[in-house]
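User: I'm curious whether this sequence folds into something compact or stays loose and floppy. Could you predict its structure so I can see for myself?
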Amino acid sequence: MIRIVTRARLVQLEGDARTATEQARQTSVAANEAFGRHVRELFAVTDRAERAEAVTDEVRLMFARAIEELSEAQQELLLKAIEIRRLREELQRGPVAGETLTVLMHHGEPHAVYASRDDAHADTGTHGLPADHVWTRCDERPAAAFKWRCEAFVYDSGSNGFHRACPPAPGALGGAA
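Assistant: Here's the prediction. I'll summarize afterward.
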């Protein structure tokens, strides 16, 4: 088929081609702008997701630490409850004949009462006595002559009270021997 194209038709086709090219250029620009917006949105969403993931990891760590601390606190409470129960039972039981208490004396004055001599010795460490201090039996000097002195007291059910385990040596009364 042979087609004859006139000059007017050629001008019209060139105009249509320019219009189509301009539309294609505008469509390409619009597509590029839309693509750029989508890429920026994708970066923003990715950044938010990464930050949310980091916060989630941090919260997960904090939660794990809180669970550990809670577990430790529960263990401590359990141990304290056991100790309280033991002390209540001991308190209800009352003193037993022959039971010993240790009184820590500072310059002859009672400082504190302990269930054991070791507890009394440990307490003197908090008041400046070295931990490796060697304790010896006290001699005949009065209790006031010693900076720290431990006295043992034994429960006597007959008198319903505690008495010194080692009573002091009797001294001369009124200067008579």
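Summary: The first strand starts at residue 100 and ends at 106. The radius of gyration is 47 Å.
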